[in-house]
Each structure stands twice: as structure tokens, then as C-alpha cells.
Amino acid sequence: MDGSDTYLIRPNYQHKFKPAIVKEYIREIVREQLSGVQYDPENVPELTRSLADCVKDKVKSAGFDKYKLVVQVVIGEQRGQGVKMSSKCLWDTDTDSCAEDVFMNDSLFCVVTVFGSYMY
Q1: N or C: which end of the chain has fewer CB within 10 A?
Q2: How confident is the model at residue 3 (pLDDT cuts 50, 70, 90)?
């Protein structure tokens, strides 16, 4: 055996999902794509899909091997109202995690969350 047939039940440190890094990726992409954008309900479905795909691709390229990624994007009109969001997950706290970031301008708000769940 050359070691390639072994199974990992925990990711190596360099491949572990790192929320701080993922948050920076989210922030970079969202600010790049939403700066100066005005809320338009007709464009929101395509915009959310585009943001989710860009974030997913960027996080995948970071080398978090064997992680299932779920990207959630919420965009709403900014009217000065408060918005509360929550999530609940059943996962392995040693390997799984999430990262999120919020973007707001005078027209819209955007919340992006990335969940990383290690596949054993």
C-alpha cells in the first residue's frame, strides 16, 4: 500500500474549511458585483444565482477537499427595516462550519452564507 488507499475521517489542516478566509471571498465578490447596483425585483433571481455560483466557484478553488458546499444568497430591498435571519444545522463541530457576510447600500441588502460540511 502506498497510502493512497487510506480513508480520512478528518480533513488535514490545510484542507479544513476556514470561515475567515471564506468570509473574505464572500465580501470581495459581493462588493465587486453589487457596488452601485439598484434594487430591481426583476433582476434579483438572476443576480442571486450569479452571486451563489461565483462564491461557490471561488470557495471550491481554495482547496477545501471533500467538503460539500451550500451557498445561500438573500437579496432584499433596503427600506431601513430590520431583517432577522437564522439557521440551524446538525453537523460535526470538529470539521463543519459556515461563513457569512452582509452587504448593504442605499437600495438593497444582501446576505451570503456558505456552509461547509465534510464528506466522510
Answers
A1: N
A2: low
Tell me the one-letter amino acid at 61. S
Return the number of other C-beta atoms located less than 10 Å from residue 105's C-beta. 15
Q: What is the pLDDT of residues 21-38, one digit of tens each?
A: 999 999 999 999 999 999
As a whole number of Å, the end-to-end CA separation of the chain is 21
72-93 mean pLDDT: 90
CATH 3.30.1140.40 fits 15-80+90-118, yes or no: yes
Q: What does the DSSP assignment read for the chain?
A: --STT---SS--GGGS--HHHHHHHHHHHHHHHHTTPPP-TTTHHHHHHHHHHHHHHHHHTTT-TTEEEEEEEEEEE-SS------------TTT-EEEEEEEE-SSEEEEEEEEEEE--
Sequence letter at residue 43: N
